[in-house]
Amino acid sequence: MTTVTEADWDALRTAAREAMSRAYAPYSGYPVGVAALVDDGRTIVGCNVENASYGIGLCAECGLVSQLHATGGGRLTHFTCVDGAGEILVPCGRCRQLLYEFGGPELVLETPDGFRTLDEMLPQAFGPSHLG
């Protein structure tokens, strides 16, 4: 696995900002973009896509996970998220759970105050290993 210092965080932030620029957020006016490294070296991205019924909008992390599987699967190793101003944003609880499924507790997230593992951001998470 690539360590925190080996990841090109500038490139990940740039990819997340580019994805954010393509977000569809006409209702909230709050575009979000995400980017992640995959264990095979790929960079994948996602952006939020809203819907007039509000409740069925898709978070940027949903798009990211969809792209992960559409391009061959794998495990997420490093993740960043930006808001409409391009500033670092942390994922909500629901999205942390989604990231846990595809990156596990060792996934490294960029936060406004540094880097954290997903285990630090979502301690004692419920995951696939809990299912029989």
UniProtKB/TrEMBL annotation:
CDD domains: cytidine_deaminase. The keyword Ribonucleoprotein does not apply. The keyword Metal-binding applies. Keywords: Hydrolase, Metal-binding, Zinc. Pfam families: dCMP_cyt_deam_1. Its EC number is 3.5.4.5. GO terms for molecular function: cytidine deaminase activity. It catalyses: 2'-deoxycytidine + H2O + H(+) = 2'-deoxyuridine + NH4(+); cytidine + H2O + H(+) = uridine + NH4(+). Residues 7-129 form the CMP/dCMP-type deaminase domain. Signal peptide: none annotated. It is an enzyme of class 3 (hydrolase). Its cofactor is Zn(2+). This enzyme scavenges exogenous and endogenous cytidine and 2'-deoxycytidine for UMP synthesis. Belongs to the cytidine and deoxycytidylate deaminase family. This is Cytidine deaminase. It comes from Streptomyces laculatispora.
